Branched-chain amino acid transport system ATP-binding protein (Micromonospora krabiensis), 249 residues
Amino acid sequence: MASEIELIDIQAGYGRAAPVLRGLTVAVPAGTIVCLVGPNGAGKSTVLKVASGLLTPRSGRILVGGREVTGQGPQRMLAAGVAHVLQGHSVFREMTVAENVLLGGYTLKNKAFVAERVEFVKELFPVVADRWDSLAGLLSGGQQKQVEFARSLMVDPKVVLLDEPSMGLDPKATATVFEQVVRMRDAGTAVLLVEQNARRALETADLGCVLDLGRVHISGPASELLADPQLGELYLGGRPAEPPVTPKV
Ligand SMILES: Nc1ncnc2c1ncn2[C@@H]1O[C@H](COP(=O)(O)OP(=O)(O)O)[C@@H](O)[C@H]1O
Ligand SMILES: [Mg+2]
């Protein structure tokens, strides 16, 4: 299956500092959720910034739908079909859900297409339909995340980049958000998901990659990564707790 986005041998970093990404290669096949896991500071958000054109790589290539788009800025990347849902919360709390979602389509000229996309995201995210005229700030964290998802899908992207969508959510809201990620995939958008909550993310994803020292260290079907005991111990918080030390009296 062709890849919606490919990052090939990417070197990237900030200013004069040593590169954060050092030869990173990752591809997102159509119809899949690819999950990139790694500890805090490993460079996960940096990968997504490169993928959406917010950060220009020092070297390497980016292909979207097989077309070379290396060096394009965020507007061109969005037009090429790459939407980015940033880490943290990016809804405008004092605006309605409707206004927030419509912002995602502000680059679109065709009104009929916008109306079509509104119907599509309302169907995909029932909370968006139910709370359409509410102020976004009144929604729960998990509901706000779904508003962000809906906003990102307005342009009908080929691939959506999700940066730690479960951050700050309770387990129930996290479960709902991951269910919605699956629905996005099933509705035709490939997903590059970045998560610190590695185990949960790999349970949702089709393919997984482990980011270490600026490269993809291990990759494969998510179920295989989950089953790998060594990986579990190193990256998935799978090491059993140390037995309590009994003080000698
Ligand atoms: N805007 C920035 N300017 C300078 N350094 C940054 C910036 N953003 C991230 N970094 C550095 O890049 C490294 C990777 O960060 P990041 O991609 O945010 O990691 P992760 O998302 O995996 O937690 C860290 O060392 C971080 O301090
Ligand atoms: Mg991050």
Summary: The two ends are 65 Å apart (CA to CA). The chain has a mean pLDDT of 92. The beta strands are 3-12, 21-29, 33-37, 59-64, 67-68, 82-85, 159-163, 190-195, 207-212, 215-221. The CA atoms of residues 24 and 161 lie 16 Å apart.
